[in-house]
């Protein structure tokens, strides 16, 4: 099986979940190549080789400084043609899924999106992905080639640095018409832990409504004590308690932390779609009948305004 991994970059650095896609690609066996697109990405290309890609295609150009889906998809198609890839993988990030979908569409190929696992079966790719808000896992195959798949961040182990050196192949930026002019990218404040990369997330919902400012301050303090990111339900976002970038769920971010602490969140299917595959779920809710308790590994029935500060004090004492 010939596999090509799209290594996403941001500001000259690799997006960490791309190394997970590389790890999943290497686990399939066969020949594994990587594509690195961006500006000043020589170090990322070398790292892709060190982590096990036998050949690394590199498009290093000022025109690729900001992600433009059309141009990146054109580069991906060029690398597929060069490598003869039968399988193309990327992390299921905002940009990863757009670039992969655009390239797959242009090639008339099938894409298995948001996989939790990948395996090879008789030379064909099988992607395991959640459906019905994560209640069922299904095996998905696509007809024809190349077979595209995106992997949910934190679903696979990252490819380890083996100190290897790959053959680097420089490709000229592929010609293509950009239909969207990307003006600028606003980055998260320095030090803020990204939701999709976080191993612990503390989220708040409409349960903070009696004093949203205090509620999210308490949630932020627990997150800080645990080294966690702050998430939120859509109800909390829609009510203006916290910005959209924190939203977890069907129309927000899909996350898979080791620990998800839901504070004052009822557990609607659209929220579960974003966090249902978390390894351990803790729910804090004053209503013992709340549906979130049927998903939770641990439940605390109580007022979040009392429970969250108590947890923070315990975490600070312990950590
Ligand atoms: C197309 C579509 C897409 C959607 N996408 C998303 C999405 O991406 N993400 C998402 O989250 N939702 C999404 N929703 C909305 C979803 O259906 C729910 O409305 C939303 O998740 C509810 O948020 P919540 O749990 O914070 O609020 P509620 O359902 O109102 O629950 C609040 C909970 O807080 C508890 N509570 C109240 N006070 C306290 C207290 N002091 N201490 C402890 N507990 C307390 C209550 O018992 C209750 O269980 C979507 C809906 C649609 C139709």
| Distance between the amino and carboxyl termini | 46 Å
Helix content: 25-40%
Rg (CA only): 21 Å
Task: Report the top-level CATH class of the largest domain.
Answer: Alpha Beta
Q: Which topology of the largest domain does CATH recognise?
A: Rossmann fold
Counting DSSP E segments of at least 2 residues, the number of strands comes to 17
CATH superfamily placement of the largest domain = HUPs
Largest sheet: 7 strands, parallel
Number of helices: 9
CATH architecture group name of the largest domain = 3-Layer(aba) Sandwich
Low-confidence stretches: none
- Overall shape: it is elongated
The succession of helices and strands, N to C, reads: EEEHEHEHEHEEEEEEEHEHEHEHEH
Number of domain units = 2
Question: Can you walk through the features of this model?
Answer:
With about 325 residues, the protein is of the alpha/beta class. It has 9 helices and 17 strands. The protein has 2 domains: about 1-170, HUPs (Rossmann fold, 3-Layer(aba) Sandwich), CATH 3.40.50.620; about 200-319, Rossmann fold (3-Layer(aba) Sandwich), CATH 3.40.50.1220. It is elongated, with a radius of gyration of 21 Å. The structure holds flavin-adenine dinucleotide. The site of flavin-adenine dinucleotide has 27 residues, from helix 6, helix 7, strand 16 and helix 9.
